[in-house]
Structures are given as structure tokens and as C-alpha cells.
Amino acid sequence: MKQNQTKNLLVKNITFLDENFSFKINKNILINKGTLKLKSSNKYYKDCEIINGKNLIAVPSFNNAHFHLGETVFRDLAPLDSLQNYLQYTDKNSLLINTDLEYNTISMVSLAEQIKNGISLVNCARGWTAVKQSGIRGCLGYPLMKSKKLKKFYDLSIKKIKLVGRYDSQTKNNTQHILAGLWIHSLEKVDKKILKKIAELKCLENFKNRPLAIHIAETEDMTKRFKNSNKVSEITMLEKYGLLGPMTNLIHCCYVSPEDLEIIAGTRTNITLCPQSNINLKEGIPSAKKMEELGINLSIGTDGLATNPTPSLLSSLRYAKSLWGDKIDNKALFMMITINPAIASGFRKKGFIKENYLADLNLYSVNKPFSDPDKFIQYLIDQNPTPVYLIIDGNIIMKEGHIKTFDEQKEYFNFYKIRKKLIQNAKNNPAQL
Ligand SMILES: [Zn+2]
């Protein structure tokens, strides 16, 4: 074993959910070099760290296809009467967050909440330092948004976006830790010069497999405004620039027309829904059933934690289920937080418990046996239990609510100092609220 690789981990006598959504009962899962080995013989079991899997059930850990690292600090402070007012508030108040250190603190708290909810991959903008530090995986986009808070990125974008590859990183086991891509807030917040540049970059060999995330048709107003001034829909515009495809993740899609959905399906473009955040901001709900019927790779993300009341993807599924009822079954829902977002984020061999897949697992404690996988998924969605273990790349990142990779308390302590500044500012300038 190379010095920098982590020790093998053996989860003994566990029940796990396989890629066919069947339970494999009383099995051993060996983790070697950050990947799953389900068929290993006993000779590989020497020198392993061992977890007794009795009374535990393993599922693939969750992948959040849409998240904002910086919004958590605005929770219960920013107005939610409309996205416009929300963005106005956050843009103004983000000027009070003035150092990279403060931004990192907010990101670490956001990631702590993801980790405790069994999430092993986040898809969001920047956060390269925090993601590396936390041990979670990231599909992290270089942010392109004309706003005060992201001005320094936008102004340098033409030169810098060519270099996003330098943000990529691998784990000690040489599996993908960070995959860097591009993050466009929305078509309204970029100009066509940038779109043209991205289109040129996307044609380059070393750029075409980089993920692109973009908020689409999030509000009715924005959707109408875009159509009126451009005479085409956002989807048609993206298609024109060649920016749709399997590496593009369209977020929200609350007001996408049936014709546009056909284009999305035809180009194998991904969609990520955040219905709870949409409802909070007084917007509509997209038709997931129609998207699913068209074969679109569909994920559910949490969105930022100021517009979404929960960091939990299981809670987000419960909310989705309350909206869609039985139109979408448990298996399809579960795939929206496991395999589908891994695909949408450009992570291969992630999202299933399968031979040679990435060793990213959630282990849940059960005090009654489950023989029916569907009932177990239903239990997860209904009860939102915290996993006893979150394993990423074969490492125990969280055990019984305790994060192993960083000092969560210290991050929260500094986080509340930043919150204090925002609360003080709100008191001094009540008109901003
Ligand atoms: Zn968002």
C-alpha cells in the first residue's frame, strides 16, 4: 500500500441496497483505495479497520445537485417574498462579509450541515478551499454573475475561466475530489459576450467535459422578461450557443414549456428541481412527472439554506412526495438524490453500491429488520434519520453526529460572529429588510 493511501475498511455482515434496488443481506463490503469491493475473498481482509454491520443498513450516500455555500448566513434574515428581493438583500449584505476567511467559515458551516445529513457531494459555485478541508466531494463552478458579491470573478472571467481546471483535485486514494466547471447564475445576469466565450471554450477538448450549472426559469417574471426581450426562451438561447448537453445542469425549470422540455430531453441535458425553495419564494412547481416520462436525468437539490428550510435531501424528498404523491415512486425519488445527481455533476461510478464504485456510503442503524427495500426508502423519507456513519472515499467523515475532518464548533462560533454583524446592520438599517 502506498504511504498516502488510506487504510482498507471492512464493513462486516451488513445489509445493503444494491443497484437493482434489492437488499443484499449479511454481506461484507471491503473498501480498498477508495472504491467498493463486494466480491473480495478473505485474504484481502487483513489489516483492515472494521465496522460491525450488524443492525446497520448501507445505502449510497447522497449527492446534492444544487447548493449554495454562502447563503446559510442569511437564514431567517433575508426576505422571502420574492427572489428579486432576496437577491437584493443578499447582494447588499454580502458586502459586510469582507474576507475570504469569513466566506470560508460560512462555507464550512454549510458543509457541516450537509455532512450530518449524509451528503457526500455538493454541486455549487466556488468553495474550493472549504470543500477540500471538509472531505466532502464537490462539483464546483467558477461563478459568472454580474453582482456586487461576485464582481471580482465576473470582471476577470474571460481570462480566468480558461483556467478552471486548476481547481480540480483528487483524494489521497486518487479518486475525484473536486471537479471544476462553470456556474452561471442565470442568463439575465450574464451578457452575450460571456455566452459566446463559453461556447468557444466548450468546443475545446479539455473543456467539453466540464460541468456547467445554470438557474433556468426560476421565476415567472424572469422567464417572461427574457422571452419578451430576446424573442426566444432561455432554453432556445442555450441551444443556440451549444450549451445544452449531458454536462449541463439546469436548475429549477419552474416555467419551462413542453417544447423546451423536448429540447432538454433530446440533448440529454440534466434538470435539478428545488421545489421547497421555489414555494418559499412564492414561485410555481415544475412537472416532474412529465420530465421523468421524457427520460430526463432528474435530481432534487436543497438550494441554499436561506431559501430552503432544511439541509436534508431526505426532507426535500418528503416534500416532493407531498407534492407529487404516488405519481413518482420511491425508487425514482431515491435516484434523484443518489445516482442522478452524481451523473449531473460529472462524477462517474458514484451513487450506487456496486463493484468498483466510489466508496461513499451512509450506514443507518435499524432496530427492526427491513426485508422490503421500498419500505426502507419510505422509512428514510418519512423519518429523515441521521446516518450513524458517513463514509467518503473509504474514510469515516462523520460518526454518530461527530464530524471527523474539522472542528465544527469553532466554525459555528465564528459563523455567529458574522451573523451578529448582519443582525446589527438590519437594526441600524431597517429599510433593508
Ligand atoms: Zn440556486
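^ zinc ion complex. Residues 9-60+351-400 form a domain with the Urease, subunit C; domain 1 fold (CATH 2.30.40.10). Residues 66, 68, 215, 251, 303-304 surround zinc ion (CB under 6 Å).
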